[in-house]
TrEMBL record:
<keyword id="KW-0547">Nucleotide-binding</keyword>
<comment type="similarity">
    <text>Belongs to the GTP cyclohydrolase I family.</text>
</comment>
<feature type="binding site">
    <location>
        <position position="146"/>
    </location>
    <ligand>
        <name>Zn(2+)</name>
    </ligand>
</feature>
<keyword id="KW-0479">Metal-binding</keyword>
<feature type="binding site">
    <location>
        <position position="74"/>
    </location>
    <ligand>
        <name>Zn(2+)</name>
    </ligand>
</feature>
<dbReference type="InterPro" id="IPR020602">
    <property type="entry name" value="GTP_CycHdrlase_I_dom"/>
</dbReference>
<keyword id="KW-0554">One-carbon metabolism</keyword>
<feature type="domain" description="GTP cyclohydrolase I">
    <location>
        <begin position="6"/>
        <end position="179"/>
    </location>
</feature>
<dbReference type="GO" id="GO:0005737">
    <property type="term" value="C:cytoplasm"/>
</dbReference>
<protein>
    <recommendedName>
        <fullName>GTP cyclohydrolase 1</fullName>
        <ecNumber>3.5.4.16</ecNumber>
    </recommendedName>
</protein>
<feature type="binding site">
    <location>
        <position position="77"/>
    </location>
    <ligand>
        <name>Zn(2+)</name>
    </ligand>
</feature>
<dbReference type="InterPro" id="IPR001474">
    <property type="entry name" value="GTP_CycHdrlase_I"/>
</dbReference>
<dbReference type="InterPro" id="IPR018234">
    <property type="entry name" value="GTP_CycHdrlase_I_CS"/>
</dbReference>
<dbReference type="Pfam" id="PF01227">
    <property type="entry name" value="GTP_cyclohydroI"/>
</dbReference>
<dbReference type="GO" id="GO:0006730">
    <property type="term" value="P:one-carbon metabolic process"/>
</dbReference>
<comment type="pathway">
    <text>Cofactor biosynthesis; 7,8-dihydroneopterin triphosphate biosynthesis; 7,8-dihydroneopterin triphosphate from GTP: step 1/1.</text>
</comment>
<comment type="subunit">
    <text>Toroid-shaped homodecamer, composed of two pentamers of five dimers.</text>
</comment>
């Protein structure tokens, strides 16, 4: 990531909106924004391969990690969207992955400029491919600041996307996954 270029661009934006980038409160803003982008867009420097660890374990039933918090950036307006990711997968070849690896793969894709629909598919595809899963279901529930603070201005609205691959597309496995993911407080 070219942080110097980001700093220059942020300085230009401050000038373009009529601000003085040299005033006390804004002097370090270009640097802070560049550091923030490096952190929240770290997915460009990461890959699912970095989190593709398998352990020998004779288990071929569903594994679910739900309510994984995420933060991403809408590529259309460069505003955040955030929420929860639910991942269900069925391992194959007597190998399972560490549960944290599912959350880390989700982060690889969330920490990029994104569309929620694309991110959902990318997470599912990576889990199918990297873990040779028999099936996977990824559900993403998110609030988009581009829908809340501008444009439609609809606070409280959620967008839900899903990607379902392999044997999780079949009933009753699909129904079981949805039942287990559903909030049952």
């Amino acid at each position: 990531m070219d942080k110097e270029r980001i700093k220059k661009a942020v300085r230009e934006i401050l000038i373009a909106i009529g601000e003085d980038p040299d005033r006390e409160g804004l002097k370090d803003t270009p640097k802070r924004v560049a550091n923030m982008y490096e952190e929240i867009l770290a997915g460009y420097e990461d890959s699912p391969e970095n989190h593709s660890v398998l352990f020998s374990e004779k288990y071929d039933e569903m594994i679910i990690v739900k309510d994984i918090p995420f933060f991403s950036m809408c590529e259309h307006h460069m505003l955040p969207f955030f929420g929860k990711i639910h991942i269900a997968y069925i391992p194959s070849e007597e190998k399972v992955t560490g549960l944290s690896k599912l959350a880390r793969i989700a982060d690889v894709y969330a920490k990029r400029l994104q569309l929620q629909e694309r991110m959902t598919e990318q997470i599912a595809d990576a889990i199918m491919e990297k873990f040779n899963a028999k099936g996977v279901m990824v559900i993403v529930e998110a609030q988009h600041l581009c829908m809340i603070m501008r444009g439609a201005k609809k606070p409280g609205s959620f967008t839900i996307t899903s990607a379902i691959k392999g044997i999780l597309r079949n009933e009753p496995t699909r129904t079981e996954a949805l039942f287990l993911i559903k909030d049952r407080k």
